[in-house]
Amino acid sequence: MVGTVDGNDAHIELDAVEKVFDVRRKAGRWRRERHQVRAVDGISFSVPRGEMVGYIGPNGAGKSTTIKMLTGILMPSGGRVRVAGIDPSRDRTKLARRIGVVFGQRTTLWWDLPLKDSYQLVRRMYRIEDVRYAKNLARCVDLLDLGPLLDVPVRQLSLGQRMRGDIAAALLHDPEVLYLDEPTIGLDVVSKAKVREFLRTVNAEQGTTVLLTTHDLTDIEQLCERVMVIDHGRLMYDGGLSGLHAVGESERTLVVDFERELPAVVVAGARCVKVEGPRQWLAFPAAASAAPLVADLAARYPLVDLSVREPAIEDVIARMYSSPVPAQTAVPAE
Questions:
Q1: Better-predicted residue by pLDDT, 107 or 117
Q2: Residue 126 confidence (pLDDT) above 80
Q3: Model confidence at 313, in pLDDT bands (50, 70, 90)?
Q4: Within a domain: residue 147?
Q5: How many CB atoms are located within 10 Å of the residue 325 CB?
Q6: Are residues 216 and 258 in the same domain?
Q7: Under a CB-based contact definition with an 8 Å cutoff, are residues 275 and 256 in contact?
Q8: 3-state SS, residue 127
């Protein structure tokens, strides 16, 4: 069963982990009341060494809070956390040498320094040997196409360029575990492909354990065999992506442009949900292939163009609520 790992083999372990924040809310003109917000609510899962796992959910679900506990930035309110056998909150410095972290909206690079100088500072912080540093830097520069950016101050980089720079910085010291929070945010299609290929290579060749949070389902589909869904601080699903789509009954959308306006088309395996001039939107199960639909349409109708739109994470989770899965239930991958 996906997600069930023997304790001796687990590289990341969470057992009934909770995180509660105290917040004060206005309760009158002069008075404020203290309330507790449960950001993470009894989450348990294990990740074996070398696995690449998608950790997804809507904004505010508890993803970043979980990662901050896994890195030692936050201390759990309850439960047990272990990363590479280390308690992150008790031995954060020791753990820092064994993990890499990329937060999509927060850079770890030095704002006014050229990219290459930021990497030199990373080398000194982690005391990376010269030979290993040169080898890792050359590899990252080549695979992430960073050569033209090395002399550019970080503040002058675009968001996509900075993201590639941050990913390289997180991997210079050969971390055993890599946490990625929205690693492809702001990247164009070509850059996204480069980052995904780079992460696949690092995972395959280095055996790096990767926990990936993203709102881009394509990241998950191309990189991860296992996905976990968190919402309102609880783990709602743990299994294969195809199983998630089946549980959530999610749908992809085939957007088709015809040569002329037509009545709503009828095609097996899909339903027409919208018609606007010569353009029509066809919904079909996310776990199904679009190829038979395209072949059927092409054989029967005058096509001009088409595209496939993936379901939003929020839509998948919303559908899960219509057929709720017990929290902490692991569903086998198909």
A1: 117
A2: yes
A3: low
A4: yes
A5: 19
A6: no
A7: no
A8: coil
